[in-house]
Amino acid sequence: MSVNTEAPDVVEEAREQSRLRTGVRLVRDLLKFHPRLFAIAVAGASLYAVCTVASSFGVAFLVDRVILPRFEAGHIDGGVYLTGAIIVIGIGVLRAFGVVVRRSFAGISNWRTVESLTMLLVRQIMSQPSIWHKKRMTGDLVARVGVDSDAAAEVLGPLPFSTSVVLLVFLTGGWLIVIDIPLGLIAISVIPVLLLLNVGYQRRIDQHYDTAQHELGALSSAVHESFDGVMVVKAFGAEDRETQRLSLISTRLKDARVRAVTARSTFEALLDGVPSLVNILLLVVGAMRIESKDMTVGELTSFIYLFTLLIFPLRIIGYVLSSVPHSASGYKRVREILDEPVVSDPSLLIIDTPNGVGIALENVSFSFDTSSARVLDSVSCRIGSGKTVVIVGATGSGKSTLLAIMAGLLQPSTGRVAVQGKHASIVFQEPFLFSGTIEYNICLGRQLSEEAIAEALYLSASDSFVAELVDGTQTIIGERGISLSGGQRQRISLARAIAQGAHVLLLDDTTSALDTVTESVVIERLRNSSQSVTTVVVASRPSTIALADEVLFIEDGKITDHGAHSALMLINDNYRTLMQSFEHDRNEGDS
Questions:
Q1: Which of 199, 345, 448, 450 fits a 20 to 30 Å CA distance from 103?
Q2: Residue 474: count of CB within 10 angstroms of its CB
Q3: Does residue 165 have a pLDDT over 50?
Q4: What is the CATH number for 129?
């Protein structure tokens, strides 16, 4: 029986220690970013604390030496009045200076920390290869960089003031007892009560903030996904389903926030109520002390004034403690990204090819994890430099995966990949363009000459339609290139890949949105380019395949045949059947 009664205490003690360690680790990690700014904020807060206690001396001096004599004698001594004014104004100016320094540098420390934390996250995310990003929701990453970073640094706002509260509590408690021992003991008794309220509040609130922060990330991911796929949602009439899905997540977020706000409201009501009750008690006991001549009116006035000033800093401690769970939840999500090891970049494993070779694969196999079947199985091939090669295969045969391995986007499970110049430019089937100018989308921040841009436009057969635009390459194309047609977007994406200057160009069914004439122009221009570009194309259009120097026929993750298109049509039954199905599908689509 004793074990059962002690177990909850042990669990609660472990939780309390965990909360304490989390809070200490959070503050320690955040202060590493800009310790000097935080130290200046703490210095300003300490000056405020000292001046707060000193101000009570000025209040007592004015009441006993200026206000009461004016009522009793009918006049005021000029020297005493001037002395009191200097004391009050001087302390007030110093106190205001401390407040300005504390608030300014606490805010600067907070903003700079958010900036530093955000940049760390961005660098970490950008350093991860594409295979890592495929396993992450974009909206969740956006939430961690934005919302979670802000939440993590939130505790730094009130923290400088709260650190000086310790000094203020000691100075104030000592001075209250010096003024009057009985009243001082009553006043300082409220301090442990408020601290206990703070601790109890933190125990209740942290789980609510954890839940709320998690649901906020889930909502950000869902909204980003829904907006990103708005065309699909509308095309299939799924608006109601998406609304319900987002509404469900929003409801969970609202419920968590409501629970947190309810707990916080109760906590703040108690923070207001307890000091108010103690204030009434101090007035009653203080009146009795004045009547018994044990203290003066000025001393009681300064006492009440000082006690009132003490309560607000104690509220700040509560605010800090209430911010810790929220900040800890945000920081936990931030650390999940920062602590995740950077996945090895597959492109770093690609080696250079010998002269005359564009791409060489040796026993390349690939599977997405150890438990799944191989997508590619012992693929070996050698493509000559400057050649145009088409990869042909049925859906799911591994064509796009093979191209991604050549591009260094996926790491083969076994085997070796060699690419001329150790780098290849890839153009995806679904082109992605930024909302800037055509020139920006081609250069992507690189300084390229007008000749290089013009050549990339020419080789991609983009020069004619770009020349017809009013602003030419300076034309703003809108989000995702919305002002361009599908074929124009693909050609600009192709121009971007060409402009990177790689010796190997990989096209993942890139020319599928082009008419056959434009497609043949693109292929011919790439083949006759002075740069001697090796072009590897994943294609299912017979006209594209017929333009290739060589065809690699892939079946179930293996290259089962290779050669000229005409030769394969004669000797390979599977290849011929696939070509006939391609032609049939295309004729069906045209009709």
A1: 199
A2: 12
A3: yes
A4: 1.20.1560.10
